[in-house]
Design brief:
The chain is of the alpha+beta class. It has 9 helices and 6 strands, in the order H-H-H-H-H-H-E-H-E-E-E-H-E-E-H. The chain is globular, with a radius of gyration of 24 Å.
């Protein structure tokens, strides 16, 4: 009966409409209840699918009317040739505009899907009884553990003078590409840091702010030295940005 009460709040939780105290309570319950964690992940995936489907391009009534008027227009005497040229040019311009719009919307959907998959990985990992495969707060232990398990190396910062603490890491996959999944703790928040080869990211943006509006987490991503980094968590945007700055400095990139 207790889980039924929690499940009634799932949609509100995923939409980020609970209070801070309720969000923390829900997070704590989800980590200890496999049933609620599974239901949360399934509901999150359903929401992502609905959002992606709802953004597919559908021609507007005005677009249909303009195309129909061009096709049905009868050329006047003496200007028949000119009329068909104008009609043909109009159709070409409309087709080009449609292709550009469709391509832009497809890129947005691809970016949405990419970050949605990472959000699912974040939720599923934190709900797992064993979220990390190497448990250590020592970067000199965690970094060497990945050698031979992923096809690249990366640097980790020293966090002694910050509020962040490294909990450990695990190997994860995105589009069948292996990468590193690190988990950091900040007060009561657990934050995921994903590192993949740069080619795995379709996004050309340094900040996935437009995509983050549709998710229940704060995100930040960037590319450096052939690698793509993405931070995701329910911590504040300022905290996520601070962790990104630490990671950039650790990898030799000036923090922005």
């Amino acid at each position: 009966m207790v889980c039924e009460a929690w499940k009634t709040q799932l949609d509100t939780y995923l939409d980020g409409e609970l209070s801070s105290e309720q969000m923390h309570a829900f997070d704590a319950h989800m980590r200890s209840c496999a049933s609620c964690a599974t239901e949360t992940l399934a509901r999150l995936q359903m929401k992502r699918s609905i959002q992606a489907a709802g953004k597919r391009f559908v021609p507007s009534a005005e677009f249909r009317r303009r195309v129909r008027s061009c096709i049905e227009a009868k050329p006047r005497r003496g200007v028949a040739g000119l009329g068909w040229i104008i009609a043909t040019a109009t159709l070409i311009l409309l087709a080009v505009g449609l292709a550009i719009t469709s391509r832009g919307r497809q890129q947005v959907r691809q970016e949405q899907q990419l970050y949605s998959e990472l959000a699912d990985l974040h939720v599923a990992t934190l709900a797992s009884l064993s979220p990390v495969d190497v448990v250590s707060s020592d970067r000199h232990t965690v970094k060497p553990w990945f050698q031979g398990k992923i096809p690249f190396t990366f640097d980790l910062p020293e966090l002694e003078n910050s509020e962040f603490s490294l909990l450990g890491g695990r190997v994860t996959y995105l589009e069948q590409t292996p990468g590193a999944h690190l988990i950091y703790k900040l007060r009561k928040h657990e934050i995921s840091v994903f590192i993949f080869p740069a080619g795995v990211s379709r996004s050309k943006k340094a900040e996935p702010s437009a995509v983050a509006k549709n998710l229940s987490f704060n995100l930040e991503s960037w590319s450096q030295d052939g690698l793509w980094y993405c931070i995701i968590g329910d911590a504040s945007r300022a905290d996520v940005h601070e962790l990104a700055g630490l990671l950039k400095r650790g990898a030799g990139l000036p923090a922005s």
